[in-house]
Design goal:
Radius of gyration: 23 Å
Structural class: alpha+beta
Protein name: DUF932 domain-containing protein
Largest sheet: 7 strands, antiparallel
Organism: Streptomyces marokkonensis
Oligomer: single chain
Order of helices and strands: HEHEEEEEEHHHEEHEEHEEEEEHHHHHHH
Distance between the termini: 38 Å
Amino acid sequence: MTQQFAERAMNVAPTGARNAGLSDLVRILEDQNRRKLDVIAPAAALSFHGGNVHVEGVESLITEDGVTEVDGIYRPTAVADEGVADKLRIPLAYLRRMRAENVPLLDENVNSWLRNDPERRFMLRAFRGENGPGMPPAEGVARALLSDSYKLMDNLDMLLAALDGVRQSGHPTQVTGCDLTDRRMYVRVESEAVAVQARALLRGYRSPFDGRSGDELPMISAGFVITNSEVGSGAYTITPRAVIQVCRNGLTEAKDVMRAVHLGGRQDEGVISWSGQTQRKTLELITSKTADAVRTFLSREYVEAKVRAMEDAAGKALAEPTKTIEHVTKSLSIGTEAKDMILSHFIRGGQMTAGGVMNAVTSTAQTLTDADQAAALEALALPALTAAAAHG
């Protein structure tokens, strides 16, 4: 965990799950749900002071559980700052510079644009601050500033609906790892019952982690990854994901993704009550679409077709591997640090082919501590294969 993330995690419901188990993920999501606060507010009710979001004049919500106060101070996450920049059309790089070097100027800029259209409405997604009895409310956390038509499709609801769809599909599966960041939830599911041989794809490959040979264990398991964002960083998706058993590298096939976007109608001002927001029809549709996707992605025919499609490109020998990796990483906008890691993994993998580049990308992704970066890099594995084979 980076120092920056550790400091942020101290004051919000815990989000730092990387390669966690399913039960741990559910526990974290339940704790987050307890602290969530979502409100539709006009620009006139929002302001920046000291770089924090101040909410004033929004009516409290009274329920059987008590009174939910909205007015207060909320410290923005990096994701929330991105939302502020987007909604107010402030260049993000400039906003970040103001936060780092001149917070009063940040306040002035944001407040000026909020006052420019005071009736414009936003959805503020937050975590409530918590304090002891008789103490003033603690500072909360502003998670995201979104459109007032953003459709709430929250992680716990989507996860349970998806797992119900997996169950209905009838396939034996296991959750092999979960990640949760400020941006997204990732749940990786695998079925070792659906595994195919991939001798041509793994010929000459060694796991960079323990040296095991792909020739001795040339198997690829079927699977998929479930993702969702509560803060506007992406749709709910189910993406097919093959797993190379010898090294646990994952290959995601973005072209076949099943998605459900967070689009809805405008909502009334005030606090959004979680108890009344779960839309049964939406979740039923998610369950049904998940079951259909699982039946497709976990079929032996689907996985075999994908493996065969990769084999020709993967077997292309590389005349100058270092130059090829330089070309691939540059064309896919992969940074220098990741490029150096990929080259190291490529050498340890011992597979001097385009397939070796693909496997180096996916094994490098496994080692990244930032789950968003890891998922983004893994998604580039197949484009890296194509680019390496074309470059030679």
